[in-house]
Amino acid sequence: MAQTKHTTKPFAPFPAEADLHTWAAELDTVALKLAPRFERAEPRQRVLRYLTGLLSTAERKNGWQLAELAGETTPDGIQRLLSSAHWEADAVRDDLVAYVLEQLADPQAILVLDETGFVKKGTKSVGVAPQYCGTVGKIANCQIGVFLAYATAHGPVLLDRALYLHKEWADDPARRAEAGVPAEASCIPKPTLGRQLLERAFAAGVTAEWVTADSIYGGDYKLRRYLEERALGGGRQPRSPLVRLGVDAHVLAAASPRHGPLAARTPQCEQARRARLLLRLRAGQLDAGAGGAGSGHPLASRAGV
What we know:
The protein is of the alpha+beta class and 305 residues long. The termini are far apart. The longest helix has 18 residues, at 17-34. It has helices at 17-34, 41-54, 63-69, 76-83, 89-104, 167-170, 173-179, 190-203, 215-218, 221-233, 267-275, and strands at 110-119, 129-133, 138-152, 155-164, 210-213, 242-243, 255-256, 260-261, 300-302. The chain folds into 2 domains: 16-87; 100-114 and 145-161 and 180-302, no CATH class.
């Protein structure tokens, strides 16, 4: 009887000691930039330990695991940092974007707009409701977060996020008040949230060659039109303003009615492959007359911004 041959994935080379010292020093620099966002010394110190834990090789990174890595006996401090400590998350987001532009700016970058579902068992987490969850591929009790990532040849990094507030929550003022959700909060469609993320990124000086997204966003005419108008307003006529893509491919691919498939040839696609974007899109083909504004069901747009 033939024996099954088991193979193991080789580990990446362990970083050199000099690299580790460089990374540690850079993390200290990041902590100094974030320090003014925190009013008290305790959260300023804990945020550095928290970031160190997130960058660690720990298999799970929940409150208990991160507290243990930080040398704390309970997760209370970590949970307090994230839930009740006084600091402005949007200001830290702005610091992150500025740092990315300083360290990783690339005019040929790709902006990736997508959502992620967080499965929950209870009913108290803000926005949780029975809704489609891509994480499990079916309707589930979950929260939905909309995210914007910035991908270059160096890799991908998250720039911004928005929580989708389900209609159940928007229509229940008592539930919102109990959870501390602002009274003016409403159920904003996901493509609108995606556009808000893009608008903030562009306003902060982020530039990209392409914007790519899942079908929920690519199928939204207003979002597509917004990106087309930005591209044309920037004085650069996209070679293929909109690219129709399907699902389940492993790399970003593009097709042009005049130039044929570009999937394996464009630098943008190579960057996306090396960045290992979690897109799972399959390349489609544009019809000869489908290159105009608002045609088809495109999931990617040449940003030209």
